[in-house]
Design goal:
There is one protein chain. With 416 residues, the protein is an alpha+beta fold. It is built from ten helices and 18 strands. It folds into three domains: 250 residues, DD-peptidase/beta-lactamase superfamily (Beta-lactamase); 80 residues, Peptidoglycan synthesis regulatory factor (PBP3), Domain 2, CATH 2.60.410; 28 residues. Strand 13 and strand 14 form a beta hairpin. Helix 2 packs antiparallel against helix 4. The chain is elongated.
């Protein structure tokens, strides 16, 4: 009996000294959201998903797509004049007035911090002339970013049966948006003031993403945790009664940045689910560079050029996602494929090959190999593979031989 008691006591003490963490044991977190996904921002690799391809209402997370298109198509300092239709937009808004003059940048802050529906409409019209034309642009750009099951109808996400996305698609759209530095700057701004305009007093905006700043605590998988999340870099929340609470979140630790998306959850659940997902990702995964921008890859031949060879370098850095506590990073390898025929002129930065990236025996990505320097078209002997420098040397040697031969003949004739 005493022996059994000692064993039970030891088990209890061991268990009580453990930190409860699903990530450390590779156990996937329990999520309240009806759909969710976690991806590596650098690689786009899916680390965890729950119904990630289910079509859902995105609510105001739609505005991530809207903001990116604005940043890609408009000058931030441009002044926008508000029309009557925009001023009548419902839901969350900054109460834009007909005839009001306000800059694109100020509307962007209203869009992403206040989640202003009227700002979304104003910006959509400024980009495309009308909401339907802007929606077409949204859908085309979403596909370019990797969205597979998305159809946008509005720039703000107000309920519409034909306006939907998926957790996975929204993560890929968010990944694209986070590639824009101004977007990153806005979504991490805690407070912003829109100065008084010709139709309104100054407007004060506050970021609703509590992962950036809140001093409160929240229960995450049965454990009380700080709501402020270390390394948070964004992104955007959303809510309608039809969509429920939604949040696209991101955080960076070391060289790894993760993006999580949760759709149709509760007010607390959107933060708890996001923390659980991000915890899981950081505990279990990291990304490593497979090739770095500017990395030397050797030389390749150039025909008809001033030089016979040109150095190849990687156009950009490419990452691979690997388990955090395993040695699988050693399985990452690259293979350089040179273009079969490279003819001068060659311009610096011109693609002259491809770097294939493998994890084990599986091809997982490609990066362009480009010329490190320019190579001009060569002289008359370049077709023989003789560089201009070598041509000059040969020409000089030939000239010396001619001079010596002429001198020899001259001396010979002189002695006859």
């Amino acid at each position: 009996m005493r022996k059994i008691f000692v064993i039970l006591l030891a088990v209890f003490l061991t268990a009580s000294s453990m930190t409860i963490s699903f990530a450390e044991t590779n156990q996937q977190p329990a999520l309240q959201a009806k759909a969710a996904v976690l991806i590596d921002s650098s690689t786009g690799e899916i680390l965890l998903d729950k119904n990630m391809n289910r079509k859902m209402y995105p609510a105001s997370t739609t505005k991530i797509m809207t903001a990116l298109l604005v940043l890609e198509n408009l000058d931030l300092s441009k002044t926008v004049t508000i029309d009557k239709e925009t001023a009548l937009t419902g839901g969350s808004q900054i109460n834009l007035a007909e005839g009001e003059h306000i800059t694109v940048e100020q509307l962007l802050y209203a869009l992403l911090l206040k989640s202003a529906n009227d700002a979304a409409v104003a910006l959509a019209k400024e980009v495309s002339g009308s909401v339907p034309e802007f929606a077409a642009l949204m859908n085309a750009r979403a596909k370019e970013l990797g969205a597979r099951n998305t159809n946008f109808v509005t720039p703000n996400g107000l309920p519409d049966a034909n306006h939907y996305t998926t957790a996975y698609d929204l993560a890929m759209i968010a990944r694209g948006a986070m590639g824009n530095e101004k977007f990153r700057d806005i979504v991490t701004t805690l407070r912003y003031t829109i100065p008084a305009t010709d139709k309104s007093d100054a407007r004060e905006l506050k970021n609703p993403n509590k992962l950036l700043y809140s001093q409160s605590k929240i229960e995450v998988n049965g454990v009380q945790r700080p709501l402020k999340y270390k390394g948070t870099t964004g992104i955007k929340n959303g809510y309608t009664s039809e969509a429920g609470r939604c949040l696209a979140a991101s955080a960076k630790r070391g060289g790894t940045e993760l993006i999580s998306v949760v759709l149709n959850t509760t007010a607390e659940g959107k933060f708890a689910d996001s923390i659980a997902l991000l915890d899981y990702g950081f505990e279990n995964y990291r990304n490593v560079p497979a090739v770095r921008k500017g990395e030397a890859l050797g030389e390749t031949k150039v025909s008809r050029g001033t030089m016979r060879n040109v150095e190849m370098i990687a156009e950009k850095t490419a990452y691979v996602t690997v388990p955090a506590k395993k040695a699988e990073a050693s399985e990452v390898r690259t293979k350089v494929i040179k273009e079969q025929k490279i003819e001068a002129p060659v311009f610096k930065g011109q693609k002259i090959g491809t770097i294939e990236i493998y994890k084990g025996n599986i091809l997982i990505g490609q990066v362009d190999a480009v010329a490190a320097v320019s190579v001009d078209k060569g002289g008359p002997l370049s077709f023989l593979g003789i560089s201009d420098r070598a041509s000059y040397v040969l020409a000089g040697c030939f000239l010396i031989i001619i001079v010596l031969l002429a001198a020899f003949i001259f001396r010979r004739r002189k002695h006859i």
